[in-house]
Specification:
Oligomer: single chain
CATH architecture of the largest domain: Up-down Bundle
CATH topology of the largest domain: Four Helix Bundle (Hemerythrin (Met), subunit A)
Distance between the termini: 141 Å
Largest sheet: 3 strands, antiparallel
Shape: globular
Number of domains: 2
Radius of gyration: 38 Å
Strand order of the largest sheet: 1-3-2
Number of helices: 14
Structural class: mainly alpha
Length: about 280
């Protein structure tokens, strides 16, 4: 090899390293690409932040009660009826429109319209120039109302025996079982609530919408008497087998037996309402 050829070889070897140098630049770009990922993730977080604001608005919208119109009136009717039937409002208690409007967050006009509806249902008594109050139902009227109930309860029980499905029977049996447990455990308040639940379910299963609606209105007027009756010593032990007999007749799909059992039970209630209480005896 000539001296000139030997001189070229080192130069070509020197060029080779220069040609290989761009590779580290490509590798150097990788950290930059990786560095972009946190920035993109951070941008994604900023884009996701509006979601909590949307969620935060929901409770405020739900918290708004209807202020006026028919929705506000229906809200007032439902709230006041529940308060009366649950015993939160006592017979004779004054119902002041301004106080109720503030409590329910509706207008006084909505409360006034609600009181008119409740007066038609026999739950509220409106006195000219004196406002309204929860109506007190005397025992004699409670007996008369229960006599009407006897016919309607018998009708609904008979219809329920005709229409009950296996699922309906299962629900009735479940309530009957819980009523038995309440009597066994000495829990008259629980028994009273289950008693009401059972009668409502029988009316619903009957499919007799007119009778069911009449029963709701009648029962609402005497709920106070029913509650006091359930607290009377020994009353639950009399009432329980009567309710279980209604359930058995409906489960057997026997309309005549169901009607007879329902009438027998309500007749027993009428007799108990007419009996003097311990308070009456002590007085």
């Amino acid at each position: 090899m000539s001296a000139a050829g030997k001189a070229r070889a080192p130069r070509e070897e020197e060029q080779a390293p220069h040609e290989e140098t761009p590779a580290p630049r490509e590798e150097a770009r990788a950290p930059r690409e990786e560095a972009r990922a946190p920035r993109e993730e951070e941008q994604a977080r900023h884009e996701e932040t509006p979601a909590p604001r949307e969620e935060a608005r929901a409770p405020r919208e739900e918290a708004r009660a209807p202020r006026e119109g028919d929705p506000a009136k229906q809200l007032a009717v439902a709230s006041l009826r529940a308060a009366i039937m649950d015993g939160d409002m006592s017979p004779g208690q004054r119902l002041v429109e301004a106080e109720l409007a503030e409590m329910l967050a509706v207008t006084r006009a909505s409360v006034r319209a609600a009181l008119i509806d409740l007066s038609a249902d026999g739950l509220v008594e409106r006195i000219p120039n004196r406002g309204a109050r929860v109506r007190a139902v005397p025992v004699e009227e409670a007996v008369a109302i229960t006599e009407c109930r006897m016919v309607l309860e018998g009708l609904c029980a008979a219809k329920a025996a005709q229409n009950a499905t296996s699922a309906d029977v299962g629900r009735l049996r479940g309530i009957g079982h819980r009523m038995s447990e309440a009597v066994r455990d000495g829990e008259p308040l629980a028994y009273s609530a289950l008693n009401r639940e059972l009668h409502v379910l029988v009316a619903d299963v009957s499919g007799q919408a007119v009778a069911a609606g009449l029963l709701r209105r009648l029962n609402a007027q005497i709920v106070r008497h029913q509650f006091r009756l359930s607290l009377r010593a020994g009353r639950t032990h009399v009432s329980l087998p009567e309710h279980l007999a209604i359930i058995d007749a409906i489960a057997a799909r026997d309309p005549d037996a169901a009607e007879a059992a329902a009438r027998h039970h309500v007749r027993s209630v009428i007799g108990a309402l007419g009996e003097p209480t311990d308070q009456d005896r002590s007085g």
